[in-house]
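Dear U.,

For the methods section draft, I wanted the exact inputs and outputs in one place so we can describe them consistently. I've listed the two proteins in the order they'll appear in the manuscript figures. Please don't edit the token lines directly; just add comments below if something needs changing.

First protein:
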Amino acid sequence: MIFTSYDNKEIYVREWTKVSDPVGVIQLAHGMNEYTGRYEKFAAYFNGLGYIVAGDDHRGHGETDEATLGYAEGDMFEDTVKDMAGIAKFYREKYAGLKYVLFGFSYGSFLTQAFVRRYARFLDGAVIAGSSRQNAAAVRAGKALADLGGSVKGKDAPAKLVNKAVFGGYSKKFEDGEWLSTDAENNARYHADPYCEFVCSNGFFSSFFKGLSGLYKKGEGAPADLPVLLISGKDDPVGDMGRGVERLAKYYKGIGVKDVSVHLIEGARHEFLNEAAHREEGLAAIAEFIKRIPVRKK
């Protein structure tokens, strides 16, 4: 479906709605350099448990901006959070009374962190996957590098230096250079997919780092009664090999969130849901969390 967002931009939304007697809705927020089409197995699993699944191809990604992958006009991070809020409102009204959960992975997990600060009224729970509480100094340095690239090469130009600094650092942590996953077939599909592995723009990274810098400022980081599951591979460099996930859990507990769960999957890297050896553990943990959380009184 095409969703017209707050600024009249057309956002592509992929839906999996073949559920005869739905018990809930899962809105998904995908990662950087990918799109919702990679979540067919995730959606099929939760359709089988009675959940409708839907998610947008974020600005600069997938079928929303297939002609300008990695770039869109405006503040891409902020605008995408607003897109997600509009989509949440749409599905909450369409499926009124059903449990509603936001699942965010990687880039989508940081969008989800921003979402729960401002739009948690739409949610009964949040799953923050492949995530971390990022180092503030690294975020400032990344933004400075992206801003410099934007002033020299243009906001729409690929941010090659930032991309190399971030993902090159992740790759160096593994002998095979494949930080994404332990699954060779998954990695090959990712490398071959034209909607994946492009270099995001200077404008994208500048917006992204700006968004990250605002996640832990004073104010409501998440309501006390919003259940949160943090799930990642134990060997995920985005989560600092589990340490960044624990920092994030400490942050949420410190601001008063009562129900914060952490699930680290031993041996898994970033895309645990696409690793044959770890997919079932990840899906089962997410399903158990969603099943036990109540519908919040908003």
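Second protein (the one for the lower panel):
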Amino acid sequence: MKRISIDPITRLEGHGKIDIFLDDQGEVANAYLQIPELRGFERFCVGRPAEDMPNLTARICGVCPEAHHMAATKALDDLFHVTPPPAAKKLRELFYSIFYVTDHTTHFYALGGPDFVVGPQAPRAERNILGVVKKVGMDIASKVLKMRRDGHELIKMIGGRRVHPNWGLPGGVSKGIDEEQRREIERLGREAVEFATFSLKLFHDLVLKNTEYVKLITGDVYVHKTYNMGMVDARNCTNFYDGMIRVTGPDGKEHAKYHPSQYREYVAERVEPWSYLKFPYLKKVGWKGFVDGVDSGIYKATPLSRCNVADAMATPLADAEFHRMYETLGGKPIHHTLATHWARLIELLYAAERWVELAADSEITSKDYRTIPTETPTEGIGCVEAPRGTLTHHYVTDSRGILTKVNLVVGTTNNNAPISMSVKKAAQGLIHQGKVSEGLLNMVEMAFRAYDPCFGCATHNLPGQMPLEVTIRDPEGNVLQRLTQHLA
């Protein structure tokens, strides 16, 4: 068999490669997404004080530290048997909404967007943020940079740092905001709503009005009919900070709805010999391999999944766009993986609207933002919707609050099986008779890029070394030198 390697894969967080195997006729026999790093974060957290976890787990990733910080903080609430006051919950959700806007902006414009804004088969040197800037112009680039700058400044104002916040505590947060800060947060939130609305218009103009892009989105190459998972509030509307976990089937019907503390009853994990990343699946359906359908326990937890499991968005502008997406693409559920980019922008708008709602709440400046724990710590589970999927932190301690067990089910880990399936199907749909081009291989990468995967979050090399291989070739393609680091 002939092997084609995409190594390293690009525009993601973390490291990985794709190996594609062709049969004698040049057709794709198989394709593997390989993550060559060992996940070890759970193990080296054992033995530490539980209170360290919001700050420690934020260091898992520099892209979404706020997600781990918040999941860990909620786990400590449960662990120490303490309920935060209402102001603390609102402050946390405000902080988290600001983070969501900042994070989704990054993915659309810098990671996923180049494939559509510049073009999926554009030269490699142009498929990046600089290519996006050249295509859309400096005025739009300035809007993007301002949105990210504003978001990070507010994250610092509220959470203590632009990256790796140190704010969450069991029972609440370490500090609140005053009226002057609240007004500034609300003002910038209204600008964020305008930015999100503008981004959706850009998507409509550049993508949805392009017949080739619409054909790509709705074609069979990027379709997988799996279960979907996401957090919803009491009205079955999307919520990123708190709620129940809802799972719907490939037909859109509700399969399960459970409290995050019950996750072990619904989710199991398995391993495969070609990846250090685990493969979660729905325990009550079972593992049937890397296949679609109602009999397969594979599920997705993505922005599109969160839309599929929700009945509506909880804010008006986002809800209108939510219904527009389903009307345009033929109703619920949507199984077109590339439609995840549209869903992500809907979530961007929802997060911005929710940011304004919370900033305008009179209770948000209350000085009552922490309840001091008084009970002996035991076991705690905290859950939020990370941008990349449902994120669960589970801690067990001794009576002194020293961690004896840690389990993390990370957003990207949920999506590992469908990402692997998407990569294989894209390769099989795009590569025929052994004909391969750089543009086609990028379109294979688009299959995983829609998930916005964070392999830095989901896996970790122990003891912190990154395998790397660099091959230097002359103009004719002959190997001149091979440099390796931490490879067998």
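Candidate sentences for the figure legend, describing the second protein: Confidence is low (pLDDT under 50) at residues 460-466. The radius of gyration is 22 Å.

Thanks,
Y.
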